Amino acid sequence: MSLLSILSSNAQSSEAQAANINVNNPQIWTNTEQGIKIQFAYQPQKPILDQPTELKFVVQNLKTGDYLKNLVANILVTHNSSGQFSNFRFSNITVPDRQFSVKYLFPDTGIYEIITRVSAKEIAALAAFKVIVPLQPYPP
Hints:
This protein is mainly beta. It has one domain: Immunoglobulin-like. It is 7% helix and 52% strand. Strand 2 and strand 3 (52-61) form a beta hairpin. It starts with a helix and ends in a 7-residue tail after the last strand.
């Protein structure tokens, strides 16, 4: 699969979708200054090269536990493979409800950093999470 087709596939999946964080151990980032918590999970839990992986996010108010609504999110997927940095952006994702997700095709094995920025009238926050894409078994 070429880089162009990966980017095209990812661009087509950049609209926010309903997400359910139903995994055993979501990654959690908190910002006490802004009073928010962002939960992150991905499916499948062992991403497969060149297959869609859903990156899911949920944003909550730390004090009340209420889910935040009417957000705008941006996501950056970054990876360093043998000194070659790659980045892919999902920009201006409208989040009318508490949850959002995007689908991404990981092109290489390794550790990826997923950086998200969420903003609303009163808040703007950055959070970073990790995704490990394991070595893939060779087809028979």
